[in-house]
Amino acid sequence: AKRTPGLSVQAYRNAGHQGHERLLKIEHKLGDAVLDGKIVPFFQPMVDSQTLQVAGVECLARWQDEDMGTIYPDEFIPLAEATGLIVDLGYQILDKALEVGSRLNANEGVEVYFSVNISPIQLFEEAFVGNVEQLIKHHQFPVHLLKLEVTESLFMGGDIQARETLMRLRKLGVQIALDDFGTGYAALAVLRDACLDVLKIDKSFVSAMTPGNLDQILVKQIVEMAHAMNLKVVAEGVETQEHQDFLQSIGCDYSQGYLWSRPVAEATFCGWLRDKMGA
Ligand code: C2E
Ligand code: CA
Ligand code: CA
Ligand code: CA
User: Which ligand 1 atom sits closest to the C-alpha of 239?
Assistant: First the structure.
């Protein structure tokens, strides 16, 4: 049935109005939230696609606000980038990730890698590599278990500074993962020229896979290509057992998605991990 134009315009206006107010609130509160450490990482496991053992975890920022509830990164990361707050926020997330990581890896005798998202603005900060090194030392985190996730927008414009920074990070022993692979433009040139260890296939391909469809074919080809370049592959957006079975059959390295777990708070994650590891 056709809705009356008057009604839908009104509905649109209401929605737009609410959205705008929420954005203004977020804008107004973000500075204090960063200052007060209100934004913390949640944790989502990555599972070895072959053995089905927990292999790693991605740290995803969540902002818990008294009035607004949980605020998701898509609502504040772009704003944090535009205002420069991402630099402080980024260190806070990394600091917390390494703290939790050290505790789990040292005390519980597990070995899981920790993957942290890094925005281009952080990488272009002069002191970034030195500060990362200091945080790793401070927490005595096993450096080979740290992965930093970057997106290919970092390489746009053919800037060599980004590449150099990644090379310095890898010299420390940190691994670099290319996030959201398949959604950008310069994909193949980036794969060839950047210093990468891991490729993450974007969830839009993975979660759309059905038997014999184009997404399945693409994912299979990407895994093959990545392996030919000596890269490990993470498939994100693994939502069904069918996705998982296919990824296992094509030799994908790691799986991440709602099939295994949503991103959860620290305490929940640590409990979940203890359970899985039978500790
Ligand atoms: P991303 O790095 O691509 O992270 C994956 C996103 O997919 C996460 O959304 C995660 O919750 C979601 N996801 C995980 N499994 C599934 C699944 O099976 N199905 C579907 N449909 N989605 C799944 P989230 O946590 O809302 O984060 C959104 C984006 O915000 C991230 O995308 C990342 O680009 C950015 N972000 C998050 N935390 C940080 C951070 O600490 N620093 C920076 N710079 N960016 C961050
Ligand atoms: Ca990511
Ligand atoms: Ca991603
Ligand atoms: Ca993304």
Answer: 18
DSSP state of 152: G
Q: Is the CA virtual torsion 98, 100, 103, 104 positive or negative?
A: negative
The whole-angstrom separation of Cα 220 and Cα 182 is: 13
Please, are residues 217 and 196 in contact by the beta-carbon 8 Å criterion?
no
Query: Which pLDDT does position 18 carry in this prediction?
Result: 60
Q: Using alpha carbons only, give the angle 268, 248, 60 rounded to the nearest 5 degrees.
A: 30
Q: Cβ(237) to ligand 1 under 6 A?
A: yes
DSSP string of 35-90, one letter each residue: HTT-EEEEEEEEEETTT--EEEEEEEEEEEETTTEEE-HHHHHHHHHHHSTHHHHH
Ligand 1 center to 60 CA (angstroms): 6
Cβ(73) – ligand 1 distance below 6 Å: yes
The three-class DSSP label of residue 237 is: coil
Element (H, E) at 146: strand 146-150
Ligand 1 contact, 61 CB (< 6 A): yes
pTM of the model: 0.92
Q: What is the dihedral of CA 153, 84, 82, 169, to 10 degrees?
A: 10
Interatomic CA distance for residues 19 and 236, integer angstroms: 29
ipTM: 0.98
For the segment 25-80, what is each residue's pLDDT rounded down to a tens digit? 999 999 999 999 999 999 999 999 999 999 999 999 999 999 999 999 999 999 99
